[in-house]
Amino acid sequence: MKKKFECLGHGVASVICKRRFHKWLRVYFNDHLQSLFINAILPCNIHANLYPNDLLKASSEIAMSSARQQAAESTNAENSPLLVAENITYVKRGKAILSDVSLQLCSREIITLIGPNGAGKTSLIRILLGLSEASSGRVQRQPDLRLGYVPQRIVVPEVMPIRVYDFLNVAGLYDAPQCLQMLEEVNCDYLLYSAMQDLSGGEMQRVLLARALLKKPQLLVLDEPASGMDIIGQQALYETIRHIRDKHDCGILMVSHDLHLVMAATDRVICLNAHICCTGHPDDVTEHPEYIKLFGDAIDGLALYSHNHDHEHDLSGNIVESEHCHSCEHHKGQK
User: Fold this and answer.
1) What pLDDT sits at residue 64?
2) Residue 170: its pLDDT value, please?
3) Would you state the pLDDT for residue 328?
C-alpha cells in the first residue's frame, strides 16, 4: 500500500511539474518553438528530476537554432524575386494577346514595360496582379506579397463630394497623419482636404500614388503614371518614383509610352509586342533591332529635352521662385 501511494505521489508530482514547465515555456517561447522543444528534447515521461540549468541550456540552443533558420529564410526571401511569370499565354475571343511571356520582378528594381498599342501590356499587368487568369503558364508570387497598384486614370463624378483624405481613407484604415505623411512623400501634402474633382492631372496621379503607398507595398505597379502630364511634370514624377524605390526598397513595374523619358527613369526595359521582343538595360535595348523595328518611326528625329533652367515648377507648371532665379529670362519678363 505504501509503495502504491509513493507511485501515486510521484505521478501527481510529475503532472504538476509538466504544467509548471509548460507555463514557463509559454512565457518565453512561442507555440511553435514550444512544440519543437517538447518533441525533440524532452522525454514523454518528464518528471521532477529535470534540472533547471540543463533546461535553460537546451532551450537556449533551440532558440539560437530557430533564430538562425529564420535569418536564413529572411535572406533567401530578400534575394529571391518578388514575382516570377513563366510562359504566360493569353487568348481572348480566339485572338492570342500574349504568347510565351516570362519575366521576373525583384526588390529595388524599376522595370518599364513598353510596346505599341495593342501589344498586350494591360493584359499582362492584369495577369500579374491576379485580376485575370492566363490561358497557360503560371505566376508565382512571394508569400503574402503586398501589392500596390496605380491605374492610368480614374473618373470621380462631379456630383460626388469627396476630399482627398476621404479617398485615401475609403476603407477606414488610416488616420489623417498617416495620409498626410504619404502625400508628403509624393510632394502634394497641401491637397489633403482638397476636393478630388479640383485636382489637375499631375495632382491626381500623385494622390493615386500616395494611396498605393499606404499599403506599404513590396511591389508597386504603375499603369501609365505620367499620362496627361507635360514634360516637366513627367520628369518630376519619375524622380519621385526613384525616391520611393530607394526609401521603401520596393520593386516597381511601370507601363509607359514616354520613350524620351522612360530610358532615363528605369533600370531595365521590357519591350512587349504580344511576346517579349527584347529586354535589358535601356542603353542596350535602344540599339536592339526589334526595338528599332517597333519604334524606329517614333524615335526618328527625336531629341531629348534637357531642362537646365535654374528655377523650379510646381505640379501645375507654375514657376516657383528660388534664391538663384532672379537672373532668369522669365523673371526679367515679369518685372
Assistant:
1) 62
2) 86
3) 44
For 18, half-sphere exposure in the C-beta direction (CA atoms, 13 angstrom radius) is 13
Q: What angle do CA 135, 137, 143 make, to 5 degrees?
A: 115
Q: Which stretches of the chain are assigned E, i.e. beta strand? A: 83-92, 95-105, 110-114, 136-141, 147-150, 219-223, 251-255, 268-273, 275-280, 312-313, 319-320
Answer whether 159's CB lies under 8 Å from 151's CB.
no
- Exposed/middle/buried for residue 41 (C-beta within 10 Å: 0-12, 13-18, 19+): middle
Residue 126 confidence (pLDDT): 93
CA neighbor of 310 nearest in space, from 293, 322, 298: 322
Give the integer Cα–Cα distance in Å for 127 and 56: 51
Which pairs count as long-range contacts for 124-132, CB under 8 Å and 24+ apart, including other chains? 124/85, 124/88, 124/90, 124/98, 124/272, 125/221, 125/223, 125/253, 125/255, 127/85, 127/88, 127/90, 127/98, 128/83, 128/85, 128/221, 128/253, 129/221, 132/90
Residues of the chain predicted below pLDDT 50: 2-18, 21-22, 24-52, 55, 71-76, 300-309, 313, 317, 322-335
Q: What is the pTM of this model?
A: 0.65
> In whole angstroms, how far apart are CA 173 and each of 141, 159, 165, 167, 170?
25, 25, 12, 12, 8
